[in-house]
Amino acid sequence: MRDRSSAAYQNLFNQPHPLVTICIATYNRGPLLLERSVASSLRQTYRNIQVIVVGDCCTDDTARLMATVRDNRLSFVNLPERGNYPTEPLLRWMVAGSVPMNHALGLAEGAFVTHLDDDDEHGPDRVEKLLSFIQQERADLVYHPFRSENESGGWTVNEASRFARRNVTTSSIFYHRWFTDLGWDPLSYRLREPGDWNRLRKIRFLGARTRRHPDILLSHFRERNQRND
Q: Where is the Glycosyltransferase 2-like domain (predicted)?
């Protein structure tokens, strides 16, 4: 990563109030999207944010619900065609959402970028904490512990003890915008790798400087209530 030493790369760590982009890919979870992920994004204590929601050709009421949000920090795009994902359920799970996520990355204007699944929730001070942390550490990417809902409705904590598979997830990372050029690979299922980890493994291979923030800043809910999947 030779670019790390450039003035353009390093200047983002010195900006007092840089724009932070939150990317959300969605498919037919309109109410959850609005009530949980979009709501938790817009109530962040750090206000200089751009929230980009991209629909994977949503056919439910997602567009109507997004239009009810009166906040110019939020934008919604619904793609005209859904991504071409494999039909086998496990393989489909690995890469579903890759196409809208890559579209969101193409629209991201922030100095720093993060993500949120359409049915999950970030803590209200997450962006504020992680922005301060990444600038202080001058890290390329930071990650953090998160709690996950189990089948019985209880919660377990993933301590994210290291930057490795099953320790990080799409919604638990925060990084320098340099990595927006490295998108999700919709064919990562051929390696039997989820798209998020396939991408993060490449980031690790590039020699990214990663740091762990100790706070639990994400609630990862069990997947449910998706229509017409």
A: 21-82, 101-157
Distances (CA, A) of 188 to 12, 95, 213: 31, 7, 28
Distance CA 175, CA 173 (A): 7
Compute the C-alpha angle 165/34/195, nearest 5°: 20
**Contact of 125 with 45, CB cutoff 8 Å:** yes
Q: What is the C-alpha separation between 110 and 7, in angstroms, rounded?
A: 17
CATH number of 18-220: 3.90.550.10
Structural contact between residues 51 and 73, judged by C-beta atoms closer than 8 angstroms: yes
Helix count (H) and strand count (E) of the chain? 8, 11
DSSP conformation class of 166: T
Amino acid at 229: D
Give the count of beta carbons closer than 10 Å to the beta carbon of residue 92: 14
Which tens digit of pLDDT belongs to each residue from 5-19?
A: 899 999 999 999 999
Q: Over the stretch 113-152, which tens digit does the pLDDT of each residue have?
A: 999 999 999 999 999 999 999 999 999 999 999 999 988 8
Closest CA to 84 of 103, 62, 105, 99: 99
* 44: nearest Cα among 125, 114, 111: 125
Task: Say if residues 73 and 102 touch (Cβ distance below 8 Å).
Answer: no
The pTM (predicted TM-score) of the whole model is: 0.94
Cβ neighbours of residue 7 closer than 8 Å, sequence gap 6 or more: none
